[in-house]
Amino acid sequence: ERRVLEIMLRQGRSVTVTLLGEPDSREEVFQSVRDGKADVGVVPVENTTAGTVSAVYDLLLDYDLSINRSYIKKISHCLAAVPGATMADIRSVCSHPHALPQCSAFISAHGFTAIEAANTAIAAQNVRDQGDVSLAAICSREAAERYGLSILAEGINDMKHNETRFIAVSRTPTCLPEDNRIEIAFHIPNAAGTLITVLDIIAHYGIDMTEIHSRPLKDSPWCYVFYVDFTGNISDHAVRSLLYQLHEELPYIKVLGSYKVD
């Protein structure tokens, strides 16, 4: 998260950084940005092992915020416990619901009981506060050190090539010359062939689609909102033509952000 903010600061952008403690949910981050308590919020959206953090995309629409930057960070999880605890003492591990499956082989091999926490930092905080030698957190080295925990094992994630993509969101959309990615959300009529028609339009303009996934459309059972990420810049003629055509042909489309992936 610091890395994303440092990139923005180097661009000369004025950024208010509000330390929220450890937010209990991603939604608190979005609320703080929406309410002006912070200019930028940084949240994870995808992990190479655990997949997409779908709830973040719902929040982008709910809070009408824009993606301004994306950063991919290598993730190395460790097992951390209160000082004096040993591996033999540990019976349960707590962590974020996306971090636990990233370490599923390690958890299974040791017969640990997995307990979900709001995020990895809160998991470390909970272990410190409870002072139970049988409870450990799966978290980063930084979180373990921050809460005075002892690291019992490092690099416990199943896949050594374990990376998470973070996004920085703000109240104001941006369009910078170095932006190389665009994210849109749209609805389509519930009829055969409508999605392939949209994909054909994207292909017609020679645009490289990097991601697509869907989420249930609230208050409309069995209808969905689709999220598509593709390469390009808003100033590109092909991108502008694509967005114009989609605006003309779809019942709903929203540009969620123009940003650079670092």
Task: Provide key terms for this protein.
single chain, 262 residues, alpha+beta, eight-stranded mixed β-sheet, five-stranded mixed β-sheet, 9 helices, 13 strands, elongated
Task: Give a written overview of the molecule.
This protein is an alpha+beta fold. Helix content is 31%, strand content 31%. The protein has nine helices and 13 strands. An eight-stranded mixed β-sheet has the order 2-1-9-3-13-10-12-11, with helices on both faces. α2 (26-34) runs parallel beside α3 (54-63).
Mass-distribution shape: elongated
Strand-and-helix sequence, N→C?
HHEEHEEEHHEHEHEEEHEEHE
The low-confidence runs, each spanning 5 or more residues with pLDDT under 50, are 16-23
Average pLDDT for all residues: 89
β content, as a range? Answer: 25-35%
Contiguous helical run count: 9
**Quick one: how many beta strands?**
13
Rg over alpha carbons: 21 Å
Which quaternary structure do these chains form? single chain
Give the arrangement of secondary structure elements.
Elements: H1 2-10, H2 26-34, E1 41-47, E2 51-52, H3 54-63, E3 66-74, E4 78-81, E5 92-95, H4 99-102, H5 104-110, E6 113-116, H6 120-130, E7 135-139, H7 141-146, E8 150-154, E9 163-170, E10 181-187, H8 194-204, E11 209-216, E12 224-231, H9 237-249, E13 252-261
Parallel strand pairs: 3-13, 5-6, 5-7
Antiparallel strand pairs: 1-2, 1-9, 3-9, 4-7, 4-8, 10-12, 10-13, 11-12
Helix pairs in contact: 2-3
